[in-house]
Amino acid sequence: MAVISSNKPYRVGRSRTGLGLFATKPIKKGTRIIRYFGPLLDCRKKEDDAIENKYLFELNGRWTIDGSVRKNVARYINHSCRPNAESDVRPRERKVYIRAIKNIEPGEEINYDYGTDYFKAYLKPIGCKCDSCERKRKKQRAEAKADRAQLKARAEKKAKKKAGKGATPASKTKKLNGVHFHGVHIHSVPHGRVRTSA
Ligand SMILES: [Zn+2]
Hints:
By secondary structure, the chain is α+β, with helices and mostly antiparallel strands.
């Protein structure tokens, strides 16, 4: 990590899952950011085919880049399901570049989509931790919590109603958290009369 010259628009830094690659300068959409490189493995060679690590980048049916080498700084780029970069694979040149697909601001983490095979093998079993998936999970948790709260409130109202008629008018139990139940607006009118309108 010591030899990343300052004219590069990125640096290695702490990310949610360990290390990641972060923009240090604005990177324009379409820019080639970095090359993903390493020894070429030929799957027709037994010893090459036996190599297994998380940094293998398949070029085609025969050639794979072994990106696990230390000098391959691109290996720090984490996966995202909604990335700001992509891999530009050039099988004929046997090269892979990481290219921006959005304008990237300084400080932003650079991500690309590792693809379905990687996702299934390494990320699905432990749960993807990219921003997009974290946001989704957060939202789901919040929704589940709201659902539980609503169920609880409903159960409590039911119990109250059972406990003593008149304590809670039936019309009022229909209004949940200020939301109009089934799209019907319920207006409470003084003197205890209830008027409904669609
Ligand atoms: Zn994800």
